[in-house]
Amino acid sequence: SERTWQLVKILHKHGRVHRIFMDQVIKNELCRYARSISDFDVPVLRSIRHQTNHHDHMHVRLRCPQDDKQCVPQGEVAPGSGCPGAK
Fold this sequence. Notes:
With 87 residues, the chain is an alpha+beta fold. It has helices spanning 2-12, 24-36, 42-47; strands at residues 17-22, 48-50, 59-62.
């Protein structure tokens, strides 16, 4: 959990990550871990979205570059962290 959380945080460092797809079990563990170290980073956790069959890997989707007219942006993700028991 520690290394996965560190990786996810590093991916977010430059502000280009829009979504990270991984299994819900892994996201739940990251939610638990973030709480345990007092690093409950809602925008980072919000970007982690459940995707079936992603229990052993993740996909990272970046935001469209501002100058790329052919890139189709995705809608925003739902508000909140998406963590069990969180608002």
